[in-house]
Amino acid sequence: MTPELLDIRRIYVEPAAAELPRGTAVLARFPDAQLVEVQSHQRIPELYGDETNVRRWVRIKREALVLGVKKTLTARPNGRSADFIAPSTANGCAMACAYCYVPRHKGYSNPITVFANIDRITGYLARHAGQQGTKPAPNECDPHAWVYDIGENSDCSVDARISDNVRDLVELFRGLPNAKASFATKHVNTDLLGWDPRGRTRIRFSLMPARDAKILDIRTSPIEQRIAAIDDFVAAGYEVHVNLSPVVVRDGWLDDWAALLEALDAGIGPAARAQLAAEVIFLTHNRDLHEVNLGWHPKAEELLWRPQLQQPKRSQNGSWNVRYRTGAKGGYVAALLDLIAARTPYLHVRYAF
Length: 353
Ligand code: SF4
Fold this sequence. Notes:
Layout (H helix, E strand, L loop, with lengths): L9 E4 L1 H5 L1 H9 L4 E4 L7 H4 L5 H10 E5 L7 E2 L6 E2 L4 E2 L21 E3 L2 H15 L13 E4 L6 H4 L5 H10 L4 E7 L15 E7 L2 H7 L6 H13 L3 E9 L5 H15 L2 H6 L1 E6 L1 E3 H10 L1 H7 L5 E5 L5 E5 L1 H18 L4 E5 L1
Parallel strand pairs: 1-2, 1-3, 3-7, 5-8, 8-9, 9-10, 10-11, 11-12, 12-16
Antiparallel strand pairs: 4-5, 6-7, 13-15, 14-15
Helix pairs in contact: 10-14, 12-13
This protein binds iron/sulfur cluster.
């Protein structure tokens, strides 16, 4: 991996995290990094302020790491992409997608925080899955297994470059008879190919037309690399799905999605096709994020902020989200589903909204 993405120079560390074996291992991985003791991984003003200084964010994303202890462990019911959202073993991200909602909790530089109490988290998950028993009926998450999303607040493929937390989760789920891990990713990390997941971890490579990705998916692996990785990950024992997201409506969008589906079809073999499924998620944007993006990446906002096409909706945390207008959106979803049925008929769509 190039130091362009990660080149850790400074680690903000909670003392309790440094004492745990995973904390020690992370610190040993970056022996030259300067250590800064912090009382809480959530309150580090020098990392989280300065909302429009993008050059500073990118430097922080590349050079800073936070090592903390995850205090509250819960598995939140979800029911759409996964049955449950697992407690995070990391949050924050070294990449910088213009539509990303992950920074909402931590300010926009949003560097990776790794949680060192992985044993507590894996123990919690094993107990939680044990309490669920056998899945009573198939649903769109999975026909048999309870699915736990392990990457809601970070990108696990990048997290795996920092610590063994993701590997521990993959190995945990390998041994759980009734449960499966799942995470979406925009980064190809071939280290994961050696972990022998035995079908109990689902990787969802996120895809969008390269024309959109070039403007929106900043610091991620190129789309053609993600498609090219699918067969390798299937051969290595992962279940591989695709997240067709976010779908951005603009002039020519359907033509570019057709080209993307053709590239997907040409890029994968029979084994991948036999198990492939997709989530289709149309763009949700956010007014505050729009304001921030205008300060550093207005070109992205030409794609993301389309008031003529969108309607506002207040989110649970009180901020304003925008989505494509209800009447028109059904037509967009139907058009993309028709395209999928025509170009990649084997691609089962688990849900689309
Ligand atoms: S890869 Fe995911 S978590 Fe990282 S910036 Fe992009 S959308 Fe956000």
